[in-house]
């Protein structure tokens, strides 16, 4: 079968062909009209789409007000923070000294987890002193609220050095609070001390210095100071001072503080915590103390045995008997007293039995438990 070939289309003159194509091209101003209509209908996605089309078609026509419009619309469209940022950056090219625009851009960078770029946007010099302070404060805020209190404190210290006396005092006070939040009470004390060189500071700030120095020197003035020592001080000696101050009396929620201290690595702090859990707790807390019955440190084992003596019940004897150490005479007495208190039952009359008698007493306790 012979192949059929179509008649070739006539070629139009170039100018005529271009005119025909132009009839199918939307006037770029139509994009703006469509954008306004979509925004009025609260269809922000469609509005943004038309604005982006206009920007591609007429980039030279996009001025500051256009990019401001696009940034505002994009804020209302899901998952468009990068589009917001791009529009804001274009807008900034027209108004580089707009402090609040720079802050908005830094916020957009922050939302994209691009903190350093946000800080770079805020690290900018302007002539107006109030606007410069606004930028500086925004840097502190950005760092602090992204979880870096120590770094924010360091910036406050730097800004204090560059500021007048009144403003530097405020930066030092802010630095002190941030250092304290980061757990560095020594630097917090240093910062507030610099603020206190001004004779006009209030008594409240003087009290703040006293509170911080009580932490630094390990001299708690109240339970709140003592709890800070226990929870925050890196030196075990100061944590021990804190917990010993706390144990002078009872206060609401004290048991939870001692339970927290069960995780302390210092033997003396841990021993105190176990003894206080035994005093303030109930049998429900014994599960938290069970591991300390087998602790490698003898002092901790004794504290745990005595805690079981205070809080344990007859059914806990099954935990105790397999752990009795017959080689350590003092610990054996503690184990034995613990079992007698929990079960209201005693085996043997000797106060300080010899090794063979201790072994026999343990065997008899095992027999007793089997019968229960």
Please provide a written account of the structure.
The structure is a single chain. The chain has 372 residues and is mainly α. The protein starts with 13 loop residues before the first helix and ends with a helix. Helices cover 67% and strands 0% of the residues. Helix 8 runs antiparallel to helix 9 and helix 16 packs parallel to helix 18. The chain is elongated and about 105 Å long. The chain contains 21 helices and no strands.
N- to C-terminal distance: 106 Å
The main pleated sheet reads as:
none
Give the H and E element order: HHHHHHHHHHHHHHHHHHHHH
| Number of DSSP helical runs | 21
Number of strands: 0
Helix content: 55-70%
Annotation keywords:
21 helices, 372 residues, single chain, disordered N terminus, mainly alpha, elongated
What is this structure, in a nutshell?
The protein has 372 residues and is mainly alpha-helical. The chain is 67% helix and 0% strand.
Reconstruct the topology from this structure.
Blueprint: H1 14-22, H2 28-40, H3 44-57, H4 64-74, H5 81-92, H6 99-111, H7 115-122, H8 129-144, H9 149-162, H10 165-181, H11 185-195, H12 203-217, H13 223-232, H14 236-246, H15 254-261, H16 267-280, H17 286-289, H18 298-311, H19 317-320, H20 329-343, H21 355-371
Helix pairs in contact: 2-3, 3-4, 4-5, 5-6, 6-7, 6-8, 7-8, 8-9, 9-10, 10-11, 11-12, 13-14, 14-16, 15-16, 16-18, 18-20
């Amino acid at each position: 079968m012979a192949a059929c070939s179509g008649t070739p289309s006539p070629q139009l003159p170039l100018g005529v062909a271009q005119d025909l194509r132009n009839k199918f091209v939307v006037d770029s101003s139509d994009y703006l009209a469509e954008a306004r209509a979509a925004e009025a209908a609260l269809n922000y996605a469609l509005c943004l789409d038309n604005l982006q089309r206009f920007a591609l078609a007429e980039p030279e026509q996009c001025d500051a007000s256009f990019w401001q419009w696009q940034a505002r619309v994009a804020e209302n469209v899901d998952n468009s923070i990068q589009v917001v940022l791009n529009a804001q950056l274009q807008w900034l090219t027209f108004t580089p000294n707009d402090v609040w625009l720079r802050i908005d851009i830094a916020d957009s960078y922050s939302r994209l987890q691009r903190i350093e770029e946000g800080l770079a946007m805020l690290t900018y010099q302007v002539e107006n002193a109030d606007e410069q302070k606004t930028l500086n404060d925004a840097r502190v805020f950005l760092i602090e609220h992204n979880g870096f209190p120590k770094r924010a404190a360091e910036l406050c210290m730097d800004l204090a050095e560059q500021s007048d006396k009144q403003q530097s005092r405020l930066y030092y006070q802010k630095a002190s609070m941030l250092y304290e939040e980061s757990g560095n009470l020594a630097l917090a004390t240093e910062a507030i001390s610099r603020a206190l060189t001004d004779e006009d500071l209030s008594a409240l700030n003087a009290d703040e210095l006293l509170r911080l120095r009580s932490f630094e020197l390990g001299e708690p003035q109240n339970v709140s100071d003592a709890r800070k020592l226990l929870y925050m001080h890196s030196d075990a000696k100061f944590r021990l001072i804190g917990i010993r101050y706390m144990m002078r009396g009872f206060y609401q929620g004290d048991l939870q503080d001692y339970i927290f201290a069960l995780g302390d690595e210092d033997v003396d702090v841990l021993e105190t915590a176990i003894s206080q859990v035994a005093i303030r707790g109930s049998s429900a807390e014994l599960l938290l103390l069970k591991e300390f019955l087998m602790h490698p440190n003898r002092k901790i084992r004794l504290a745990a045995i005595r805690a079981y003596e205070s809080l344990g019940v007859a059914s806990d004897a099954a935990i105790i008997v397999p752990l009795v150490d017959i080689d350590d005479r003092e610990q054996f007495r503690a184990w034995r007293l613990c079992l007698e208190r929990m079960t209201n039952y005693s085996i043997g009359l000797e106060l300080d039995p010899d090794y063979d008698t201790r072994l026999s007493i343990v065997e008899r306790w095992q027999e007793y438990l089997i019968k229960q």
